[in-house]
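2024-03-11 09:14:02 DEBUG pipeline.ingest accepted 1 chain
2024-03-11 09:14:02 DEBUG pipeline.ingest length=208
2024-03-11 09:14:03 DEBUG pipeline.predict start
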Amino acid sequence: MGLVSGELVYLNEVTRRLMKAVRLIDTTDEVINELSRKIFDVVSEAENYSYEGTTAQGSLKNDKNPIERRDQSPSEFFPYSPAVGPLNPIAPPLKVEVCNEGEYKEIRALGKLDGVYVGPPDLVQGGVIALLFDDIMGSVLVVNNCGAMTGTLEVRYEKPTPIAKELLWIGKIEKIEGRKIHVSAELWAEETRTAIAKGIFVKVEMLS
């Protein structure tokens, strides 16, 4: 996976499994208490290695510029993203690709969301959908060499989005007006479009 450590990717994959298992656990208090003790020991050891400085989704220590890595995949220039990052255990395991379509490059993300992301029965929680929209649209900016931050994000939920079904996010730039970049995105569950999003992203001067 290029610049992304395979060992760290595997640690995050195992942690995702743990999150799902804990979210769906259905057993006795005795078993839960025993598992809690084991997990506590592992967490306590892992905390000894926590980095405590400034962090970012582009790198652990905020020392890499995603725009400079725009020719890579979103999983590499946003490895710690809570939406598409393989080094963030809350990010679902999506396959994210860059597509050359029209004037601007597009982003397509494909995969399933599991029980961790449930809101209504067997449906994806709406805020999770908004999070994924925001970061997929942000990835669109990076691959098109447009560094900007979210100004507004509008999400319209058209249909319920199912858990454990193959989902497809598509994000693209609509137009650029000075410092404002207009981006749109769609979410599909097979042949059904379940949500759409529109965002205005604003180019800003980043403080050091």
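2024-03-11 09:14:41 DEBUG pipeline.report The chain has a mean pLDDT of 93.
2024-03-11 09:14:41 DEBUG pipeline.predict end
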